[in-house]
Each structure stands twice: as C-alpha cells, then as structure tokens.
Amino acid sequence: MALLQFVNNVGEDLEQGDVVVIAPRQPETPGQMGLPSIEVELAGAPYDSSVCGVVFDLYVEHKPDDGQATDSAESEENRQSDPKATSAPSGPFAADELERLDRSKIAPGQMGQLAVSGICAVCKVDADIAPIEPGDLLTTSATKGHAQKVVDLSKAAGSVLGKALGSLKEGKGAIPVLVTLQ
Question: Deepest of 144, 145, 169, 175, by most Cβ within 10 A of its Cβ?
C-alpha cells in the first residue's frame, strides 16, 4: 500500500478520484526526506505513460492538543467568507478542525495524497470509450481527469493505472479500482 504526497499547482481544485499525470516541470524545493513534492496535472490523453496515480485525499497533519483554545472557529469563518477558499490549507490541524475538513478536494497550492500502488480507491472513469467490467485494466483517457478501459494492449505498456473493481456500462462516473501502476 503506497500513498505519495503531491502539490496541486493545476490552478483549479483536484477532486478525489481524479486521474493525474506527472507535470512536465517539477519543483526543485525539497520536501519530506529531502525529496521534492511531486507536481501533477489532470490526465487528458489516452495511454499516457506519465500516469502517476489517483487523487486520494487532502494531506493533513494532526496538531496535538495543547489544552489551549484555538481560533479554528475564526479561521473556519474566514474560509467560508472567501469564495475562492474551497477547503482549509494543508498543515497541522486540531482534532475539531479535522472533523470539519472536506478532504475530498485539494485546492491550488495545497498538498494531497495520491494512491499509487496496492490501494483500492475511487476513480473517475469514462465508459463511453468501452464498457468497464471488474478486472479490466484501466489507463488514462482523453476525458480530462478520467481513466478508460485498456482496449489496445500494444499501447498500454507504462500507462496502466490499475484494475477495475466495479463496472460502468456507459457514460462517466466513478468506480472502485485497485491502483497498480504498470
């Protein structure tokens, strides 16, 4: 089971289940353990070998309770009054703040976590290319942020996102997948 931290520099909210690829330009600033945080973009081309995972969660750290009252109510009020602030910034949060967070959206500049290997996650898919059944291999799609069924194995090398655990006969939706980048 592997989660990878990333920074949303897409310029719009990323949502849980979005399929993402490695951005062509990567940050030079060191992140955890001296490694840079990866920057991602929404997938938007079929069989993209730069696929790197599925948006899983907002990255947050628990702030230990020091027994003092926090100004979390005030910061929550400020977030609600700012139409551009769709969720709280990444960073340490008190337990009561964690309960109110919408962890399914990662706003620009926030850190998130990608499901990259051995994790079951909800994934956005486009079944208009081909119906999806459990066990089907999935790859990136021309539909921004979505996966599709692998219909041409000769193109799939390096672009497989994982295996479908659910089905979708047509249209766009979200299904559970086992993320197994290949």
Answer: 145
Q: Phi first, then psi: what are they for 153, rounded to 5°?
A: -60, -25
Q: Is the pTM value of this prediction over 0.90?
A: no
- Relative to beta strand 38-42, strand 2-7 is parallel
pLDDT over threshold 90, residue 169:
yes
Pairing between strand 147-149 and 137-140? Answer: antiparallel
> What DSSP state is assigned to residue 54?
E
Partners of residue 175 on adjacent β-strands: 123
pLDDT at 80 over 50: no
Amino acid at 6: F
> How far, in Å, CA of 64 to CA of 34, rounded?
25
